[in-house]
Design a protein that fits this description.
369 residues, alpha/beta, Rossmann fold, 3 domains, six-stranded mixed beta sheet, two-stranded antiparallel ribbon, 17% strand
Length: 369
Amino acid sequence: MKGHRFAEFVPGPVGGNSKFDQLYHIFEQLLLLTSGDVGEAMAWLSELDRQHKLTNDQYGVGDFFEDLKKKGYIKEERGTEEGKFVMTAKSEKSIRKSALDEIFGKLKRSKSGGSHHTPFTGVGDELNSDIRQFQFGDSLDQIAMTESIKNAQVNHGIGDFMLMEQDLEVVEKDQKTTTSTVVMIDISHSMILYGEDRITPAKKVALALAELIRTKYPKDSLDIIVFGNDAWQIQLKDLPYLSVGPYHTNTVAGLELAMDILRRKKTRNKQIFMITDGKPTCLKEGIRYYKNSFGLDRKIISKTLTLAAQARKLDIPVTTFMIASDPYLKQFVQDFTRVNNGRAYYSNLQGLGGFVLEDFQRNRRKNMK
């Protein structure tokens, strides 16, 4: 009987730089741009390959497509004669993690640990006996040093000691405070007007925020609603497939639904994040829609400000992320923010994620009483 046979180890590409990983990173972006349409995303990838030579003779787009199926990122939809492929839960989870890394993972932290001071005191987290693998968002004081060092010795040997991220284990915390967050996403037609895609960054921010809450604040709740002519709630798994419609902007309906959701939450800390690029242009009166896209309609604005005041009475701050720079729209947002006592940002698409993260953490600290 032969024993173990050893051969020279040739490591593969380091840091996720294989051809599949490179193409998959682009493919994920295309999935968000095409609202989860696998076929359209593959067509765009093929066109990009033709223009920019993303593949080579050893690994082509066809090989990448086969690997997507083998690795469980896509599957053939049942009941379709044309062989339509759709994303799997694995793809949806991967998109959330990529959005978290892209938007929040690369933000620099200040040496002082932040400058969000508050006059309120809060109940801190308490360590318990549960130990788990290190995840994004865990603090250094949670690291279980004995278990982590033992893992490093087992995985890498004692002679050349290395401590890698996959070796780390942390002690779980019992969280004493929770926050309920509602994200409102504008899906009116103006979110894709003027040659600028504004809906995809909004989806990325919501995906990243959801993954942040799932990893760092697992006892918090996050609800996502979209608003056009009407407002309705969507599930997290539906977010990559979200697209704009031929809608006006019924901000009132979005706020009413968000406040209704938060009224049913038992948590004390509640907040609304509203991502929009336009002014309120629509109301629903019974079964009839009242619309006015020309300027700021006094009837619509009055109802919107009334809801801002109601949210303030319920101690629900509304943080508005305005992807626009028109002076008269800024004036409306300033009025809305003053009535609600919330916050407002006039963000470009590149800075949106950083603003969301900063305010999410600020509101959690501010509301702990």
